[in-house]
Design goal:
The protein has 88 residues and is an all-alpha fold. The chain has a single domain (14-81), classed as 434 Repressor (Amino-terminal Domain), CATH 1.10.260. The chain has four helices and no strands. Helix 2 packs across helix 3. The radius of gyration is 14 Å and the shape is globular. It starts with 9 loop residues before the first helix and ends in a 14-residue tail after the last helix.
Length: 88
């Protein structure tokens, strides 16, 4: 049976955001990209939005388009952003 959207809690959504952001940061650092370098590669003129989104400040988060761009720039499969490890 399909779940209704209302059955998804804010905690579940927040968990997924944090998981994705943790993995993006980890992969960015492994590939020796600064936030600024990745932001500019994505087409932003400054790193401000990127920095706020990666740290989930001010309610900012990456859109699907951003996640696709990040995966291509870092040369990783998008599913890597959704992987859970022992630290999470």
């Amino acid at each position: 049976m399909l779940k209704e959207f209302s059955d998804i809690t804010e905690e579940e959504i927040e968990y997924q955001y944090k998981l994705i952001l943790k993995n993006i940061k980890k992969l960015r650092l492994e590939r020796k990209f600064t936030q600024e370098k990745l932001a500019l590669s994505m087409g932003f003129t400054t790193a401000t939005f990127y920095t706020n989104a990666e740290s989930h400040k001010r309610g900012k988060h990456f859109s699907l388009e951003h996640i696709i761009k990040i995966s291509k720039i870092l040369d990783v499969k998008i599913e890597n952003f959704f992987k859970e490890d022992d630290d999470f």
